[in-house]
Amino acid sequence: MTKLSAADLAKAIDRLADATGENPVAYDTGTGGAVDMSRTSDHRAMDKRKNKFNAQPVIVNDVLFASKAESLRHPQLQLLENAGIISELELQPKFVLQESFRDAQGRQHRAITYTADYSYLQDRQRVVEDVKGGKATQTQQFAIRWKWVIKQNPSIRFELVGAKK
Q1: What is the CATH number that goes with domain 67-165?
Q2: Which of 80, 101, 98, 97 shows the shortest CA–CA distance to 89?
Q3: 1 three-state secondary structure
Q4: Which burial class, exposed, middle or buried, applies to 77 when counting CB atoms under 10 A from its CB (0-12, 13-18, 19+)?
Q5: Domains of the chain: which residue ranges?
Q6: Of 146, 142, 143, 144, which is closest to residue 156 (Cα–Cα)?
Q7: For 15-37, what is the mean pLDDT?
Q8: Is the pLDDT of residue 161 over 60?
């Protein structure tokens, strides 16, 4: 697991806040209490727009998660890794679905990517997980990228965790 410096953590909080419009919440694992990140010296005030899925960014042990559901899955996977059931646990693995390109008119098009929540090895097979809080978070864009990444990586086992199917 990668630990972030205070400066890197503040930058990550700002990027997540810009993307979601939410004030991230940090959990102090020493006391178990929540800390409002908008009141820390390393974080600027943000507007109060709601995330369309009501997902609130969460920081646990200096690791930034996009949602509470995702943050709750992490200690479960760490226990499995410590027990030797899984190995090579990775957060936010990124898959390139289509490389960037320049079209006939010379316009540059960005790469299309899919970022999962977790990746690990189990019984010598790569497993990629995406944590979903419910069916509503399975947007059309997610469904397209999910099918695309599965098609391009037939040797990897892809799993949705926590989603109501």
Answers
A1: 3.40.1350
A2: 80
A3: coil
A4: buried
A5: 1-66, 67-165
A6: 146
A7: 50
A8: yes
Dihedrals phi, psi of 131, to nearest 5 degrees: -90, 125
Condensed to tens digits (0 to 9), the pLDDT of residues 111-137 reads: 999 999 999 999 999 999 999 876 656
Give the pTM: 0.63
Among candidate residues 163, 16, 1, the one with its CA nearest the CA of residue 78: 1
CA distances from 22 to 5, 18, 48, 53, 142 (A): 22, 8, 6, 11, 21
8 by DSSP, 3-state: which? Answer: helix
What's the CA gap between 163 and 143, in Å, rounded? 13
17: left (phi over 0), alpha (psi -120 to 50) or beta: alpha
Closest CA to 48 of 19, 78, 21, 9: 21
Of residues 38 and 73, more confidence is placed in 73
Q: What are 101's two structure tokens?
A: 């390109």
For 92-103, letters b (16+ CB in 10 Å) and e give ebebeeeeeeee
Is pLDDT above 50 for 10?
yes
